[in-house]
Amino acid sequence: MNSSLKFKVESLKLSVGSSQIKNRQSPIVNIQSFIILLFLVITSSAFATSYADPNIKFKEANTLYADGKYIEAAEIYNQLIKDDYLSPEIYYNLGNAHFKLNEIPSAILNFERALKLKPDYEDAIFNLKQANFRTIDKIDRLPELFIGNAYRSLVTSKTAGTWAYFTVGLSAVALLLFISYLLSSGVLIKKTGFYGGLLFLLMGLFCWFMASENQNLVNQQAEAIIFTETVIIKSEPNANSQKLFTLHEGTKVNVLASQKDWVKIKLPNGNVGWLGAKDLEVI
User: Fold this and answer.
1) Residue 169 sits in the same domain as residue 204
2) What is the CA radius of gyration of the chain?
3) In the chain, at which residue ranges do the beta strands (DSSP E only) sit?
4) Does 149 score more than 50 pLDDT?
5) Same domain, yes or no, for 95 and 151?
6) Hey, how many other C-beta atoms are within 10 angstroms of the C-beta on 143?
7) Which of 177, 193, 220 represents a domain boundary (last residue)?
8) CATH number of the CATH domain containing 80
């Protein structure tokens, strides 16, 4: 279940040019130059090692996972995340480690985070379903129009960044086709350049719109996972308010608002209530 992580690791290369030294140069100067050169080489090696560490650490964690040392593997994955080395593979493997340790809420949280970065990550989708089978709450989603559901699925099928890459690529092709239309004297090439450029431009605008919609959807719908084994949802953000319903660990909720130590949530079935901020973890 391990995945390979590809980092763009660039080692710092120190280029030291040779120079002619005058015959009467002091030996002390030679020694000082040698010390400076040695220091620079050691420093460059240290930088190169530090850049390689994330990939090395990831492989080390994968080895620990393969050996059944899930706690140790999870610690390294978490450290990589704390160091801002974020990737769907790290979250995916961390979710696997928590699943093996029967820590279902943490497993679900990290599978969800992997899918935030890569919505079409099939292994994460499959393992998330397996983890959700282990949860208590089975909440039905409110009926939604087919068109609305299909549109949402299309928008979230790629990340905003991926839609943006498509926009840039399609726009570049459109520009080349328009240039061929302007520079060419042949009728067929001019027609192909004009209509082809128009088509690719429209496709690029569509991808730009999808990127914008995806980002708006992410900003509007913060999601979280319940981590408390059993939590009572309240009607208001205070302990003495009316009890509405009960949720259990591993359940995913939408976050609507927060107030001091309380968070307002909404379930897929439309139920709304408040619970303590300590009872959940934002995806």
Assistant:
1) yes
2) 27
3) 222-226, 230-234, 243-248, 252-259, 262-266, 272-276, 280-282
4) yes
5) no
6) 6
7) 220
8) 1.25.40.10
**Unique residue bearing structure tokens 């004297």:** 185
- Say how many C-beta atoms besides its own lie within 10 A of residue 103's C-beta: 20
Classify each residue of 77-100 as buried b or exposed e, where b means 16 or more C-beta atoms within 10 Å of its C-beta: bbebbeeebebbbbbbbbbbbbbb
Sign of CA pseudo-dihedral 241, 244, 250, 255: negative
Distance CA 277, CA 120 (A): 30
Q: Which residue has the tokens 């090696």?
A: 45
Please give the mean pLDDT across all residues of the chain. Answer: 82
Q: Is 256 exposed, middle or buried (0-12, 13-18, 19+ CB in 10 A)?
A: middle
Bridge partners (DSSP) of residue 232 are 246
pLDDT mean over 206-211: 91
| Residue 51 domain boundaries | 27-132
pLDDT, position 14: 25
Residue 79's pLDDT is: 93
Comparing 226 with 147, the larger pLDDT belongs to 226
CA distance 114 to 124: 7
Q: 273 and 192, same structural domain?
A: no
Q: Answer whether residue 12 is part of any domain.
A: no
User: Whose structure tokens read 């359940």?
Assistant: 251
Return the higher-pLDDT residue of 3 and 129.
Answer: 129
Q: What percent of the chain has pLDDT over 90?
A: 52
| Greater model confidence, 41 or 9 | 41
- Structural domain contains residue 14: no
User: What's the pTM value of the predicted model, to 2 decimals?
Assistant: 0.65
